[in-house]
């Protein structure tokens, strides 16, 4: 059994997230527990947001908030509520120095100068599906700051390439709620058990099938796709592959992680750099994909190698089963 296998945490399915985090920490003799606590803080905020999502149709939290975010998108009430919940939990937790959020134009400095971690977060992914009771999610990336603890946060602390992530994950609020994450030692999934208020280990050491028969792309923009994307979509159709597009990145990604498949948000005339954001959507899912044996590129280069230049920059996104991503980007 290789070193990597030995360092994978072997815990029986059914263990809870807390125990898994603790066991994980024991594998790192010099671990100080800060990253573990940070993961717990994210998981906790996810429980609160999950409760609000489950009762969204009842309460007065559906609909638009009446503001536009830095992307020029109309913020939904739940976008704002989720943003507040995660920011508050990370601030109170004390392990995070600064946050990059889809819902905030500037870096959120949490005035925790002694903290060494930076979090990039999409508090609510799939906003167009909030009011129609379709699966939505939260996406997060964790980095270690570069500048010394105690000093003011620098741009270099936040604009780090995805390869510098120390942890990444997502929460899927679907028919069940799942917390899926990696710290660079494989991907594990935990299903939320509301009656216990616990995330239970349900998907251990997740592996993305090398190939698949499902493609996810918004064909509504077909006529503004580049030729290689059109060709790939045509090839999928000729092979009788299934088209699946939920319109929530986390949900489409999760399905492909389990069953095999590819998700593409290419550059289009309307969105020459694609729609998805490198810092708080693509980097996290690229790390999960690679840790599970999949692949993620912008059509030309590995997502995790891209040096960010802007907090909210967009990139074309090809992610999923290795064989499919390779084929889809061959002529890119
Ligand atoms: O409606 P489109 O253009 O296909 O875009 C859908 C994509 O946009 C997103 O909703 C963008 O994420 P946000 O909802 O967090 O802004 C993805 O979840 C989804 O895959
Ligand atoms: Mg999103
Ligand atoms: Mg969002």
Automatic annotation (TrEMBL):
Residues binding substrate: 125-128, 218, 245, 275
Principal location: cytoplasm
InterPro entries documented for this protein: FBPase_C_dom, FBPase_class-1, FBPase_N, FBPtase
Family, similarity comment: Belongs to the FBPase class 1 family.
GO cellular component, one term: cytosol
The protein's required cofactors: Mg(2+)
Keywords: Carbohydrate metabolism, Cytoplasm, Hydrolase, Magnesium, Metal-binding
Encoding gene, per UniProt annotation: fbp
UniProt-listed Pfam families: FBPase (PF00316), FBPase_C (PF18913)
Protein name: Fructose-1,6-bisphosphatase class 1
């Amino acid at each position: 059994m290789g070193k990597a296998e030995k360092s994978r945490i072997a815990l029986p399915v059914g263990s809870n997230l807390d125990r898994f985090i603790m066991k994980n920490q024991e594998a790192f003799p010099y671990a100080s527990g800060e990253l573990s606590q940070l993961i717990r803080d994210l998981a906790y905020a996810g429980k609160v947001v999950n409760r609000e999502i489950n009762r969204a149709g009842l309460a007065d939290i559906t609909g638009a908030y009446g503001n536009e975010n830095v992307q020029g998108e109309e913020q939904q009430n739940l976008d704002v509520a989720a943003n507040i919940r995660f920011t508050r939990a990370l601030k109170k937790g004390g392990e995070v120095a600064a946050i990059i959020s889809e819902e905030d134009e500037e870096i959120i400095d949490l005035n925790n100068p002694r903290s060494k971690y930076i979090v990039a977060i999409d508090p609510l992914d799939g906003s167009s599906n909030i009011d129609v009771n379709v699966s939505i999610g939260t996406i997060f990336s964790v980095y270690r700051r570069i500048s010394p603890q105690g000093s003011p946060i620098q741009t270099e602390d936040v604009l780090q390439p995805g390869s510098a992530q120390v942890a990444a994950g997502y929460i899927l609020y679907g028919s069940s709620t799942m917390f899926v994450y990696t710290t660079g030692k494989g991907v594990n999934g935990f299903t939320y058990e509301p009656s216990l208020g616990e995330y239970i280990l349900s998907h251990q050491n997740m592996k993305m099938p090398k190939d698949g028969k499902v493609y996810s792309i918004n064909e509504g923009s077909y006529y503004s796709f580049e030729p290689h994307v059109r060709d790939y979509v045509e090839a999928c159709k000729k092979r009788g592959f299934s088209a699946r597009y939920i319109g929530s990145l986390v949900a489409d990604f999760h399905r492909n992680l389990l069953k095999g498949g590819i998700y593409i948000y290419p550059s289009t005339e309307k969105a020459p750099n694609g729609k998805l954001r490198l810092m708080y959507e693509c980097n996290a899912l690229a790390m999960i994909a690679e840790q599970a044996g999949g692949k993620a590129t912008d059509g030309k280069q590995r997502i995790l190698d891209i040096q960010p230049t802007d907090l909210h920059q967009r990139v074309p996104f090809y992610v999923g089963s290795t064989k499919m991503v390779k084929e889809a980007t061959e002529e890119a």
